[in-house]
Amino acid sequence: MSKRIAHVDSIRAVAVLLMVMVHAAATWGPSANTQPSALIYLVSGLGGLAAPLFVTIFGWGCFHSSATANQRYIRAAFLLVSQIAVNIFAPHLFEPLTPGVLTLFAILTLTQPLWVNPFRMNPNKSSSTLWIWIFAILTTVFFLSDLQGSSQWSDRVEVSSIIILFKHLIITGTYPLFPWIIFAVFGSWIACKQEAERTFPISKKSVSPIIAGLLFCITTLIYSEQNGLEWAAPSGNSILTFFPSNAPFLIAALTGVSLLWIILQAYNTVLLNPLGKISLSVYLLHFIPIGLFYNFDETNDWSFSVSMIVVLVYTLLWIPIAHLWHRFAPKANIEHVLSTLTKKV
Questions:
Q1: Are 169 and 161 a contacting pair, CB within 8 Å?
Q2: Residue 20 clears pLDDT 60, i.e. is over it
């Protein structure tokens, strides 16, 4: 698109800030033995929406992209190499060849025509197309959950053979194509429904599923409380699990992404715009301090307050950094490099 949309840049910014927060919390956050609190629930809840929002806004951008096949190949290769760089700078989280969100973006870029073209070619049937995707993915996840592999983090990041690498890319990794493509498809649907003043459509047909999603979340939360179950956790026997992503999590994440999009669309601030314009650069670079200083809390003796302050300060620090970056070096970023590479094709 020739003209940037302010609240879309804000959404990109929030997505990358949440990703930074998740990785900072995984490195310097409170220990697992810390007593739950409202702040931990808030951080965990927003953290759970980081990747879904990131993938959704990526899907929105793919719908508006006019890249040729060769340009998509270059972008995909660039993203794959970038993922390896990320892994090298965060050895405490990943192995060198561990697939992650950037490899997911690469595969989505390569398969873009398969999931974008149905919305472009039949915009009048876009809602039906979306629901077919959602129903097919949720049904498969629910009935064939064992296909998604182990819930152990070590199993999902280990790459000991080319076969395991491809399995992680498609279905058993941290951010495999299935079922995470659901968020890219959702982003493509949002782009298809874009109006003159709003990107996310506000109508009875679009709001009703959000209300249903909220009711689903409340119902599962009450159920978990009444039965002594954990409601949400990265993995394990919780109602909502991230690794692997189960059906309740996907429903809750789609609901949360919708709400965040609507809120940011209504607020329409420009404060986050510089960060949104370099979201990929920030995503790549934020791993460097994390990788260099990940053992600062190696003895796990930081208090809850210190841990949370470190995580939040590190996360929010990228907002003023982005403003300074945009002012003094607006073209010195990964986005500009990628744009230059693809223009030559």
A1: no
A2: yes
